[in-house]
Amino acid sequence: MLAGSLAAALIAALILRLRNRTYRRVHEIETADLDHDGVPDIYASDSSSKVEG
Fold it and tell me: Which of 6, 11, 23, 39 has its Cβ near the most Cβ atoms within 10 Å?
């Protein structure tokens, strides 16, 4: 019984680590603003991200 509970806890911890790593990457992609225009790059259209001039 104790071994089963321990195994379940270890598997859950592994799954949560993988899930958190994935969500962290998604968050970084969605909030990246490399051109510092105040709009995350993933939501900026191609025409607004180009600097004209």
Answer: 39
